[in-house]
Write a structure and sequence with these properties.
2 copies of one chain form a homodimer. Chain A is α+β, with helices and mostly antiparallel strands and 147 residues long. Chain A contains 6 helices and 6 strands, in the order ααβααββββαβα. The radius of gyration of chain A is 18 Å and the shape is globular. The first copy, chain A, binds a DNA duplex (25 and 25 nucleotides) through helix 4.
Chain lengths: 147, 147
DNA sequence: CTTGTTGCAAAGGATTTGCACGGCT
DNA sequence: AGCCGTGCAAATCCTTTGCAACAAG
């Protein structure tokens, strides 16, 4: 169930689409990386294996993955979007080191509960949320303690 | 101290810049609106008062406000950036109605504390964060209860 | 034949930048 | 004179789209 390739194939089949070699390669590289990639980065990785795959196909395939629920478009503090693999259905938030860029996925039940509460007390029915924590990771603090 | 116009003038003076009529008008409209505007929206509002003010100046002035600590660039789930006025130093998060677009500023001390805790337990020194809650506000739920 | 898919190049939208002009010190 | 600030247009970056060719059912 946590095999994204299989889930992708199922989605493709269920929707009368074709599982083309291009799509397979893009999806495979995307999930193997496991990171939050921009279309540009993913395209470069894919083209390293197969020069003939165009940028547009990468864009289209990422959108397709989003529709299939296998990826999520994320807007961090940059111009271009990043795509995050959703191997499973689990939600999580982000903890990003502003020094080295490390991006850790975190989840805290207490926070989730309080978010629900804040929304409710404002008359909102909470449907989803996004939380990004920025800080300096321990490694970076050691390397450049006082600077 | 909560007069952004004055704070802007101070920043301008402190940095050897000029408080031009264009900048004054842009800043005034921006803070009077009090909302999260895109450059395009702000530009339209400004040009309604003075056709001669160019888009580029609006872009440049918003960047300047950010440098002055009077505005903050926010990336919601859309292509273009939005700018939020920082009248005072107070931090807050966002609660957005996905039906009508209403954007409520919220703050919960309990959540803030737990964020600190989550970062620490991952070895991070927390420097800042961003949290956006998405939901349906009470008005929208009443209007279109089941649809 | 009909529909889906692709790469390319063109188009689009948002933002930045080069430039010549004008204003302030 | 010298720097700052402006509007305009061009340039850039990221993303989408039109199109002709091709593949699959």
């Amino acid at each position: 169930m946590s095999d994204p390739l299989r889930r992708f194939a199922t989605y493709i089949a269920d929707h009368g689409l074709n599982n083309t070699p291009q799509r397979r390669r893009i999806v495979e590289v995307f999930f193997k990386s496991g990171k939050h990639l921009t279309t540009e980065e993913l395209s470069a990785m894919v083209r390293a294996q197969d020069k003939s795959i165009g940028q547009a196909t990468v864009y289209r395939t990422l959108k397709l993955l989003c529709r299939a629920g296998l990826a999520k478009e994320q807007h961090f503090e940059e111009l271009s979007a990043r795509y995050e693999p959703l191997d499973n259905e689990a939600h999580h938030d982000h903890l990003i080191c502003t020094a080295c860029g490390r991006n850790v996925e975190v989840l805290d039940a207490g926070i989730e509960a309080k978010q629900e509460e804040v929304a409710r007390s404002n008359g909102f029915m909470l449907t989803s949320h996004r939380m990004i924590l920025y800080g300096i990771c321990s490694e970076c603090r050691e390397k450049r303690g006082g600077e």
